[in-house]
Amino acid sequence: MLRVLAEVGVRVDWLPALEIFAANGCKVNFDQSVVFIPQDVLERALSTAPSQFQLHARNPQQMITVTLDDVYTIAGSSALNVLDLEGNHRPATLQDLRDFTRLIDALPLADIMHAMVIPQDIPQPGFDRVLFATILENSSKHYYSQGEGGQSVYDQVQMASIIQNGSEAVRQAPIFSLVTCLTSPLIHPAERVQEMIACTECGIPLWLEATNMMGATAPVTIAGALVEHTANMLAALTFVQLLRPGHPCIVGIASGGLNMRTGTYVGASPEATLLHVASVQMARFYGLPFEGSSGLDACLPDAQAAYERALQDIPYVLAGMNFIHLAFGMMNQLLTSSYEQAVIDYEILAAAYRLAEGFEVDEETLAFDQIRQAGHGGQFLTHPYTLRRFKEHQWQPRLTSRLEWTQFQRQLGGADLRQRANQFARELLASHQPLPLEEKQAQELWRMARSFQEAALQSR
Protein backbone atom coordinates (compact mmCIF):
# COMPACT_ATOMS: atom_id res chain seq x y z
CA MET A 1 0.00 0.00 0.00
CA LEU A 2 2.71 2.47 0.96
CA ARG A 3 4.65 1.86 -2.27
CA VAL A 4 1.53 2.23 -4.40
CA LEU A 5 0.65 5.53 -2.75
CA ALA A 6 4.21 6.89 -2.90
CA GLU A 7 5.41 5.49 -6.25
CA VAL A 8 2.29 4.92 -8.40
CA GLY A 9 0.02 7.53 -6.89
CA VAL A 10 -3.67 8.24 -7.36
CA ARG A 11 -5.25 10.23 -10.17
CA VAL A 12 -7.41 13.03 -8.76
CA ASP A 13 -9.57 14.73 -11.39
CA TRP A 14 -10.13 18.04 -9.62
CA LEU A 15 -7.56 20.84 -9.60
CA PRO A 16 -8.46 22.34 -6.18
CA ALA A 17 -7.90 18.92 -4.64
CA LEU A 18 -4.50 18.60 -6.33
CA GLU A 19 -3.54 21.95 -4.84
CA ILE A 20 -4.59 20.84 -1.37
CA PHE A 21 -2.48 17.69 -1.63
CA ALA A 22 0.51 19.73 -2.88
CA ALA A 23 0.19 22.24 -0.05
CA ASN A 24 0.31 19.44 2.51
CA GLY A 25 3.52 17.66 1.55
CA CYS A 26 2.44 15.47 -1.38
CA LYS A 27 4.23 15.37 -4.70
CA VAL A 28 1.77 16.24 -7.48
CA ASN A 29 2.08 15.85 -11.22
CA PHE A 30 -0.37 18.54 -12.32
CA ASP A 31 -0.09 17.66 -16.00
CA GLN A 32 -1.32 14.11 -15.35
CA SER A 33 -3.44 14.94 -12.25
CA VAL A 34 -1.55 12.33 -10.21
CA VAL A 35 -0.91 12.65 -6.46
CA PHE A 36 1.91 10.77 -4.72
CA ILE A 37 1.30 10.40 -0.98
CA PRO A 38 4.38 9.87 1.22
CA GLN A 39 4.23 7.76 4.35
CA ASP A 40 4.45 10.68 6.77
CA VAL A 41 1.40 12.40 5.22
CA LEU A 42 -0.58 9.15 5.40
CA GLU A 43 0.43 8.57 9.01
CA ARG A 44 -0.62 12.10 9.92
CA ALA A 45 -4.03 11.49 8.36
CA LEU A 46 -4.41 8.17 10.17
CA SER A 47 -3.57 9.85 13.47
CA THR A 48 -6.53 12.25 13.13
CA ALA A 49 -9.09 9.84 11.66
CA PRO A 50 -11.49 8.87 14.47
CA SER A 51 -12.22 5.22 15.20
CA GLN A 52 -15.28 5.98 17.31
CA PHE A 53 -18.13 8.38 16.62
CA GLN A 54 -21.90 8.43 16.28
CA LEU A 55 -24.28 8.13 13.36
CA HIS A 56 -27.45 9.89 14.40
CA ALA A 57 -30.98 9.02 13.36
CA ARG A 58 -34.40 10.64 13.18
CA ASN A 59 -35.33 8.29 16.00
CA PRO A 60 -32.68 8.89 18.69
CA GLN A 61 -33.08 5.31 19.91
CA GLN A 62 -31.71 4.11 16.56
CA MET A 63 -28.46 6.05 16.80
CA ILE A 64 -25.39 3.99 15.93
CA THR A 65 -22.12 4.25 17.87
CA VAL A 66 -19.31 3.39 15.48
CA THR A 67 -16.45 1.42 17.02
CA LEU A 68 -13.85 -1.06 15.79
CA ASP A 69 -15.51 -3.88 17.71
CA ASP A 70 -19.21 -3.82 16.81
CA VAL A 71 -20.99 -5.32 13.80
CA TYR A 72 -23.93 -3.55 12.14
CA THR A 73 -25.81 -3.89 8.86
CA ILE A 74 -26.65 -1.54 5.99
CA ALA A 75 -29.50 -2.19 3.59
CA GLY A 76 -29.38 -1.62 -0.15
CA SER A 77 -28.16 -0.65 -2.50
CA SER A 78 -29.53 1.06 -5.56
CA ALA A 79 -30.75 -1.82 -7.71
CA LEU A 80 -32.44 -0.84 -10.95
CA ASN A 81 -34.85 -3.78 -10.95
CA VAL A 82 -37.06 -5.64 -8.50
CA LEU A 83 -38.29 -9.18 -8.09
CA ASP A 84 -41.71 -8.38 -6.71
CA LEU A 85 -44.05 -10.40 -4.54
CA GLU A 86 -45.99 -11.60 -7.58
CA GLY A 87 -42.80 -13.09 -9.01
CA ASN A 88 -42.31 -10.43 -11.68
CA HIS A 89 -38.85 -9.16 -12.59
CA ARG A 90 -39.30 -5.54 -13.69
CA PRO A 91 -37.83 -2.04 -13.45
CA ALA A 92 -38.03 -0.52 -9.97
CA THR A 93 -40.60 2.17 -9.26
CA LEU A 94 -40.94 4.92 -6.68
CA GLN A 95 -43.57 2.80 -4.93
CA ASP A 96 -41.02 -0.03 -4.67
CA LEU A 97 -38.63 2.36 -2.95
CA ARG A 98 -41.35 3.28 -0.44
CA ASP A 99 -42.27 -0.36 0.17
CA PHE A 100 -38.69 -1.61 0.45
CA THR A 101 -37.86 1.20 2.86
CA ARG A 102 -40.80 0.31 5.11
CA LEU A 103 -39.89 -3.38 4.90
CA ILE A 104 -36.29 -2.76 5.96
CA ASP A 105 -37.43 -0.30 8.63
CA ALA A 106 -39.44 -3.18 10.16
CA LEU A 107 -36.40 -5.48 10.51
CA PRO A 108 -34.66 -4.96 13.87
CA LEU A 109 -31.27 -6.23 12.66
CA ALA A 110 -31.26 -3.74 9.77
CA ASP A 111 -29.35 -0.92 11.45
CA ILE A 112 -28.79 1.64 8.68
CA MET A 113 -31.01 2.48 5.74
CA HIS A 114 -29.81 2.71 2.16
CA ALA A 115 -32.00 3.01 -0.92
CA MET A 116 -32.81 -0.54 -1.96
CA VAL A 117 -33.67 0.61 -5.49
CA ILE A 118 -33.30 3.60 -7.78
CA PRO A 119 -36.77 4.17 -9.23
CA GLN A 120 -36.81 4.04 -13.01
CA ASP A 121 -40.13 5.88 -13.31
CA ILE A 122 -38.63 9.24 -12.27
CA PRO A 123 -36.14 11.51 -14.08
CA GLN A 124 -32.64 10.29 -13.27
CA PRO A 125 -30.79 13.63 -12.88
CA GLY A 126 -31.31 14.67 -9.28
CA PHE A 127 -32.61 11.21 -8.35
CA ASP A 128 -30.77 11.34 -5.04
CA ARG A 129 -33.00 14.17 -3.77
CA VAL A 130 -36.10 12.03 -4.43
CA LEU A 131 -34.40 9.12 -2.66
CA PHE A 132 -33.65 11.38 0.29
CA ALA A 133 -37.26 12.50 0.73
CA THR A 134 -38.63 8.98 0.27
CA ILE A 135 -36.22 7.34 2.71
CA LEU A 136 -36.61 9.96 5.44
CA GLU A 137 -40.40 9.81 5.17
CA ASN A 138 -40.52 6.00 5.41
CA SER A 139 -37.78 5.21 7.92
CA SER A 140 -36.48 6.72 11.13
CA LYS A 141 -33.08 4.97 10.90
CA HIS A 142 -29.81 6.62 9.95
CA TYR A 143 -29.66 7.11 6.19
CA TYR A 144 -26.61 6.06 4.15
CA SER A 145 -27.15 8.46 1.28
CA GLN A 146 -25.54 9.00 -2.10
CA GLY A 147 -25.20 11.92 -4.46
CA GLU A 148 -24.23 13.43 -7.77
CA GLY A 149 -21.48 15.83 -6.71
CA GLY A 150 -21.05 18.60 -4.21
CA GLN A 151 -24.40 20.30 -4.88
CA SER A 152 -26.15 17.07 -3.92
CA VAL A 153 -24.63 17.31 -0.45
CA TYR A 154 -25.66 20.94 0.04
CA ASP A 155 -29.20 20.14 -1.12
CA GLN A 156 -29.48 17.16 1.20
CA VAL A 157 -28.25 19.22 4.15
CA GLN A 158 -31.02 21.75 3.44
CA MET A 159 -33.57 18.92 3.31
CA ALA A 160 -32.30 17.44 6.56
CA SER A 161 -32.52 20.87 8.20
CA ILE A 162 -36.31 20.77 7.68
CA ILE A 163 -36.46 17.67 9.87
CA GLN A 164 -33.75 18.71 12.34
CA ASN A 165 -34.86 22.34 12.69
CA GLY A 166 -31.87 24.06 11.20
CA SER A 167 -28.55 23.53 9.42
CA GLU A 168 -26.55 23.87 12.61
CA ALA A 169 -28.43 20.95 14.13
CA VAL A 170 -27.57 18.95 11.02
CA ARG A 171 -23.90 19.84 11.39
CA GLN A 172 -23.88 18.80 15.05
CA ALA A 173 -25.84 15.54 14.69
CA PRO A 174 -26.52 14.69 11.02
CA ILE A 175 -29.17 12.02 10.50
CA PHE A 176 -27.56 10.99 7.23
CA SER A 177 -24.11 10.22 5.91
CA LEU A 178 -22.85 10.02 2.33
CA VAL A 179 -21.06 7.32 0.38
CA THR A 180 -18.56 8.47 -2.21
CA CYS A 181 -17.59 5.70 -4.64
CA LEU A 182 -14.01 5.78 -5.88
CA THR A 183 -13.01 4.33 -9.24
CA SER A 184 -10.56 1.49 -9.67
CA PRO A 185 -7.77 1.38 -10.39
CA LEU A 186 -6.69 4.41 -8.36
CA ILE A 187 -8.94 7.22 -9.61
CA HIS A 188 -10.85 9.87 -7.65
CA PRO A 189 -13.39 11.38 -10.09
CA ALA A 190 -14.19 15.08 -9.82
CA GLU A 191 -17.75 14.52 -8.57
CA ARG A 192 -16.54 12.26 -5.78
CA VAL A 193 -13.88 14.76 -4.68
CA GLN A 194 -16.48 17.54 -4.67
CA GLU A 195 -18.69 15.37 -2.44
CA MET A 196 -15.82 14.90 0.02
CA ILE A 197 -15.22 18.64 0.14
CA ALA A 198 -18.91 19.42 0.69
CA CYS A 199 -19.26 16.78 3.40
CA THR A 200 -16.31 18.14 5.37
CA GLU A 201 -17.75 21.65 5.09
CA CYS A 202 -21.16 20.52 6.36
CA GLY A 203 -20.07 17.93 8.95
CA ILE A 204 -21.57 14.95 7.11
CA PRO A 205 -19.87 11.58 7.85
CA LEU A 206 -18.32 9.90 4.82
CA TRP A 207 -18.17 6.33 3.57
CA LEU A 208 -15.08 6.08 1.36
CA GLU A 209 -15.82 3.09 -0.85
CA ALA A 210 -13.35 1.65 -3.36
CA THR A 211 -14.71 -1.15 -5.50
CA ASN A 212 -12.69 -3.24 -7.93
CA MET A 213 -13.05 -6.44 -9.92
CA MET A 214 -10.25 -8.97 -9.63
CA GLY A 215 -8.89 -9.56 -13.12
CA ALA A 216 -10.46 -6.42 -14.61
CA THR A 217 -9.96 -3.21 -12.59
CA ALA A 218 -7.55 -4.84 -10.13
CA PRO A 219 -4.98 -7.63 -10.25
CA VAL A 220 -6.53 -11.07 -10.57
CA THR A 221 -4.94 -12.17 -7.30
CA ILE A 222 -6.69 -11.56 -3.99
CA ALA A 223 -3.55 -10.01 -2.53
CA GLY A 224 -3.14 -7.65 -5.50
CA ALA A 225 -6.78 -6.55 -5.38
CA LEU A 226 -6.40 -5.98 -1.65
CA VAL A 227 -3.47 -3.65 -2.29
CA GLU A 228 -5.30 -1.68 -4.99
CA HIS A 229 -8.53 -0.91 -3.17
CA THR A 230 -6.80 -0.35 0.19
CA ALA A 231 -4.47 2.21 -1.39
CA ASN A 232 -7.45 3.90 -3.04
CA MET A 233 -9.36 4.10 0.25
CA LEU A 234 -6.35 5.41 2.16
CA ALA A 235 -5.77 8.12 -0.43
CA ALA A 236 -9.36 9.32 0.00
CA LEU A 237 -9.04 9.16 3.78
CA THR A 238 -5.87 11.24 3.58
CA PHE A 239 -7.63 13.89 1.51
CA VAL A 240 -10.57 14.12 3.91
CA GLN A 241 -8.28 14.43 6.93
CA LEU A 242 -6.26 17.15 5.18
CA LEU A 243 -9.50 19.03 4.61
CA ARG A 244 -10.79 18.60 8.15
CA PRO A 245 -8.72 16.67 10.70
CA GLY A 246 -10.97 14.42 12.77
CA HIS A 247 -13.78 14.23 10.22
CA PRO A 248 -15.69 10.92 10.69
CA CYS A 249 -14.93 8.42 7.91
CA ILE A 250 -15.65 4.75 7.33
CA VAL A 251 -13.64 2.99 4.65
CA GLY A 252 -15.32 0.33 2.59
CA ILE A 253 -15.46 -1.86 -0.48
CA ALA A 254 -17.91 -3.77 -2.65
CA SER A 255 -15.13 -5.48 -4.56
CA GLY A 256 -15.59 -8.78 -6.33
CA GLY A 257 -14.33 -10.72 -9.28
CA LEU A 258 -14.84 -10.95 -13.02
CA ASN A 259 -16.61 -13.81 -14.73
CA MET A 260 -14.03 -14.61 -17.39
CA ARG A 261 -16.69 -16.40 -19.46
CA THR A 262 -19.19 -13.54 -19.62
CA GLY A 263 -17.29 -10.42 -18.59
CA THR A 264 -19.69 -9.67 -15.72
CA TYR A 265 -19.21 -8.87 -12.04
CA VAL A 266 -19.00 -11.74 -9.54
CA GLY A 267 -19.87 -10.79 -5.98
CA ALA A 268 -20.54 -14.03 -4.13
CA SER A 269 -17.47 -16.10 -4.92
CA PRO A 270 -15.23 -17.58 -2.21
CA GLU A 271 -12.48 -15.28 -3.51
CA ALA A 272 -14.67 -12.21 -2.96
CA THR A 273 -15.39 -13.30 0.61
CA LEU A 274 -11.68 -13.85 1.28
CA LEU A 275 -10.93 -10.41 -0.15
CA HIS A 276 -13.48 -8.84 2.17
CA VAL A 277 -12.24 -10.66 5.25
CA ALA A 278 -8.66 -9.62 4.44
CA SER A 279 -9.88 -6.04 4.01
CA VAL A 280 -11.42 -6.15 7.50
CA GLN A 281 -7.99 -7.08 8.82
CA MET A 282 -6.29 -4.26 6.91
CA ALA A 283 -8.79 -1.71 8.22
CA ARG A 284 -8.27 -3.01 11.75
CA PHE A 285 -4.48 -2.68 11.24
CA TYR A 286 -4.94 0.99 10.34
CA GLY A 287 -7.45 1.58 13.14
CA LEU A 288 -10.32 2.43 10.79
CA PRO A 289 -13.99 1.34 10.88
CA PHE A 290 -14.85 -0.71 7.80
CA GLU A 291 -17.89 -1.59 5.69
CA GLY A 292 -18.04 -4.25 3.02
CA SER A 293 -20.06 -6.83 1.10
CA SER A 294 -20.73 -7.62 -2.51
CA GLY A 295 -24.28 -8.96 -2.79
CA LEU A 296 -25.54 -12.19 -4.30
CA ASP A 297 -25.00 -13.53 -7.80
CA ALA A 298 -28.17 -15.67 -7.67
CA CYS A 299 -31.14 -14.34 -9.63
CA LEU A 300 -33.83 -16.06 -7.53
CA PRO A 301 -34.41 -16.61 -3.78
CA ASP A 302 -33.31 -20.22 -4.05
CA ALA A 303 -30.68 -22.60 -2.66
CA GLN A 304 -27.91 -20.74 -4.47
CA ALA A 305 -28.94 -17.45 -2.90
CA ALA A 306 -29.08 -19.04 0.55
CA TYR A 307 -25.64 -20.61 0.42
CA GLU A 308 -24.10 -17.49 -1.11
CA ARG A 309 -25.50 -15.34 1.67
CA ALA A 310 -24.42 -17.77 4.39
CA LEU A 311 -20.89 -17.96 2.94
CA GLN A 312 -20.74 -14.18 3.23
CA ASP A 313 -22.50 -13.41 6.51
CA ILE A 314 -20.83 -16.04 8.66
CA PRO A 315 -17.22 -15.09 7.78
CA TYR A 316 -18.05 -11.38 7.90
CA VAL A 317 -19.60 -11.56 11.35
CA LEU A 318 -16.81 -13.77 12.70
CA ALA A 319 -14.18 -11.45 11.19
CA GLY A 320 -15.77 -8.47 12.93
CA MET A 321 -16.78 -6.51 9.82
CA ASN A 322 -18.11 -3.32 11.36
CA PHE A 323 -20.78 -2.74 8.71
CA ILE A 324 -22.16 -5.48 6.49
CA HIS A 325 -23.48 -3.61 3.48
CA LEU A 326 -25.87 -4.94 0.82
CA ALA A 327 -27.18 -7.09 3.64
CA PHE A 328 -30.79 -7.59 2.56
CA GLY A 329 -32.28 -8.63 -0.75
CA MET A 330 -29.51 -7.63 -3.16
CA MET A 331 -29.31 -10.18 -5.99
CA ASN A 332 -28.34 -10.61 -9.61
CA GLN A 333 -24.93 -8.93 -9.22
CA LEU A 334 -26.50 -5.90 -7.46
CA LEU A 335 -28.95 -5.26 -10.31
CA THR A 336 -32.10 -6.61 -8.59
CA SER A 337 -33.70 -6.24 -5.16
CA SER A 338 -36.00 -9.01 -3.93
CA TYR A 339 -38.61 -8.59 -1.21
CA GLU A 340 -38.53 -12.30 -0.44
CA GLN A 341 -34.75 -12.50 -0.32
CA ALA A 342 -34.62 -9.49 2.00
CA VAL A 343 -36.46 -11.34 4.76
CA ILE A 344 -34.60 -14.60 4.06
CA ASP A 345 -31.34 -12.67 4.41
CA TYR A 346 -32.59 -11.37 7.74
CA GLU A 347 -33.02 -14.95 8.95
CA ILE A 348 -29.54 -15.98 7.75
CA LEU A 349 -27.98 -12.93 9.37
CA ALA A 350 -29.70 -13.66 12.68
CA ALA A 351 -28.27 -17.19 12.63
CA ALA A 352 -24.80 -15.82 11.80
CA TYR A 353 -25.04 -13.44 14.75
CA ARG A 354 -25.95 -16.38 16.97
CA LEU A 355 -22.85 -18.27 15.82
CA ALA A 356 -20.69 -15.25 16.55
CA GLU A 357 -22.07 -14.98 20.08
CA GLY A 358 -20.67 -18.39 20.97
CA PHE A 359 -21.63 -19.63 24.42
CA GLU A 360 -20.77 -18.93 28.02
CA VAL A 361 -18.88 -21.41 30.16
CA ASP A 362 -19.34 -20.74 33.87
CA GLU A 363 -20.66 -22.47 36.96
CA GLU A 364 -24.27 -21.97 35.99
CA THR A 365 -24.05 -22.96 32.31
CA LEU A 366 -22.03 -26.10 33.11
CA ALA A 367 -25.21 -27.17 34.95
CA PHE A 368 -23.56 -29.63 37.33
CA ASP A 369 -26.44 -29.43 39.83
CA GLN A 370 -28.98 -30.20 37.11
CA ILE A 371 -26.96 -33.18 35.90
CA ARG A 372 -26.68 -34.50 39.45
CA GLN A 373 -30.39 -34.05 40.08
CA ALA A 374 -31.37 -35.84 36.85
CA GLY A 375 -28.99 -38.67 37.67
CA HIS A 376 -28.67 -41.76 35.51
CA GLY A 377 -31.34 -42.01 32.85
CA GLY A 378 -33.19 -38.91 34.04
CA GLN A 379 -34.58 -36.09 31.94
CA PHE A 380 -34.22 -32.32 31.79
CA LEU A 381 -37.38 -31.30 29.91
CA THR A 382 -39.48 -30.43 32.97
CA HIS A 383 -36.63 -29.16 35.11
CA PRO A 384 -37.19 -25.55 36.26
CA TYR A 385 -33.74 -24.64 34.93
CA THR A 386 -34.75 -25.70 31.40
CA LEU A 387 -38.06 -23.87 31.53
CA ARG A 388 -36.37 -20.75 32.85
CA ARG A 389 -33.44 -20.63 30.45
CA PHE A 390 -34.38 -22.31 27.15
CA LYS A 391 -35.34 -19.04 25.40
CA GLU A 392 -31.98 -17.59 26.33
CA HIS A 393 -30.00 -20.58 25.06
CA GLN A 394 -31.93 -21.47 21.92
CA TRP A 395 -32.23 -19.20 18.89
CA GLN A 396 -35.78 -19.25 17.54
CA PRO A 397 -36.03 -18.61 13.78
CA ARG A 398 -38.93 -16.83 12.12
CA LEU A 399 -38.97 -18.51 8.69
CA THR A 400 -37.01 -21.72 9.14
CA SER A 401 -39.12 -24.88 9.51
CA ARG A 402 -38.16 -27.37 12.22
CA LEU A 403 -41.21 -29.57 11.75
CA GLU A 404 -41.23 -33.20 10.73
CA TRP A 405 -43.07 -34.07 7.50
CA THR A 406 -46.60 -34.55 8.84
CA GLN A 407 -46.48 -31.37 10.94
CA PHE A 408 -44.84 -29.50 8.05
CA GLN A 409 -47.73 -30.38 5.76
CA ARG A 410 -50.42 -29.72 8.36
CA GLN A 411 -49.11 -26.46 9.83
CA LEU A 412 -47.34 -24.91 6.83
CA GLY A 413 -49.20 -26.52 3.99
CA GLY A 414 -45.92 -27.72 2.53
CA ALA A 415 -44.85 -24.14 1.72
CA ASP A 416 -41.16 -23.83 0.92
CA LEU A 417 -38.90 -21.11 2.34
CA ARG A 418 -39.50 -18.69 -0.52
CA GLN A 419 -43.27 -19.04 -0.15
CA ARG A 420 -43.04 -18.45 3.59
CA ALA A 421 -40.80 -15.43 2.99
CA ASN A 422 -43.34 -14.06 0.53
CA GLN A 423 -46.08 -14.27 3.14
CA PHE A 424 -43.89 -12.74 5.85
CA ALA A 425 -42.92 -9.81 3.61
CA ARG A 426 -46.58 -9.19 2.82
CA GLU A 427 -47.42 -9.22 6.53
CA LEU A 428 -44.70 -6.70 7.33
CA LEU A 429 -45.76 -4.38 4.51
CA ALA A 430 -49.38 -4.58 5.66
CA SER A 431 -48.67 -3.95 9.33
CA HIS A 432 -45.53 -1.85 9.78
CA GLN A 433 -45.88 1.89 10.03
CA PRO A 434 -42.63 3.86 10.35
CA LEU A 435 -42.24 6.76 12.74
CA PRO A 436 -44.11 9.52 10.86
CA LEU A 437 -42.83 12.94 9.97
CA GLU A 438 -44.89 15.97 10.87
CA GLU A 439 -47.17 16.75 7.95
CA LYS A 440 -45.63 20.19 7.34
CA GLN A 441 -42.14 18.68 7.40
CA ALA A 442 -43.10 16.02 4.85
CA GLN A 443 -44.68 18.59 2.56
CA GLU A 444 -41.65 20.88 2.70
CA LEU A 445 -39.27 17.97 2.24
CA TRP A 446 -41.01 16.95 -0.97
CA ARG A 447 -41.27 20.53 -2.20
CA MET A 448 -37.51 20.87 -1.82
CA ALA A 449 -36.84 17.48 -3.40
CA ARG A 450 -38.83 18.39 -6.51
CA SER A 451 -37.24 21.84 -6.68
CA PHE A 452 -33.71 20.48 -6.37
CA GLN A 453 -34.39 17.77 -8.93
CA GLU A 454 -35.76 20.35 -11.36
CA ALA A 455 -32.59 22.39 -10.92
CA ALA A 456 -30.50 19.28 -11.61
CA LEU A 457 -32.53 18.60 -14.76
CA GLN A 458 -32.04 22.16 -16.02
CA SER A 459 -28.29 22.00 -15.42
CA ARG A 460 -27.91 19.01 -17.80
Q: How would you characterize this protein structure?
A:
With about 450 residues, the protein is of the alpha/beta class. The protein has 3 domains: about 1-45, no CATH class; about 45-240 and about 245-355, TIM Barrel (Alpha-Beta Barrel); about 365-395, no CATH class. The protein is built from 18 helices and 21 strands. The chain has helices at about 1-10, 15-25, 40-50, 95-105, 125-140, 150-165, 165-170, 190-200, 220-245, 270-285, 305-320, 340-355, 365, 370-375, 385-395, 405-410, 415-430, 440-460; strands at about 10, 25-30, 35, 55, 65, 70-75, 80-85, 90, 110-115, 140-145, 175-185, 185-190, 205-210, 215, 250-255, 255-260, 265, 290, 325, 330, 335-340. The protein has an 8-stranded parallel β-sheet with strand order 6-19-18-15-13-11-10-9. Strand 2 and strand 3 form a beta hairpin. Helix 3 (about 40-50) crosses helix 9 (about 220-245), helix 4 (about 95-105) runs parallel beside helix 5 and helix 8 packs across helix 9 (about 220-245). The radius of gyration is 24 Å and the shape is globular. The protein starts with a helix and ends with a helix.
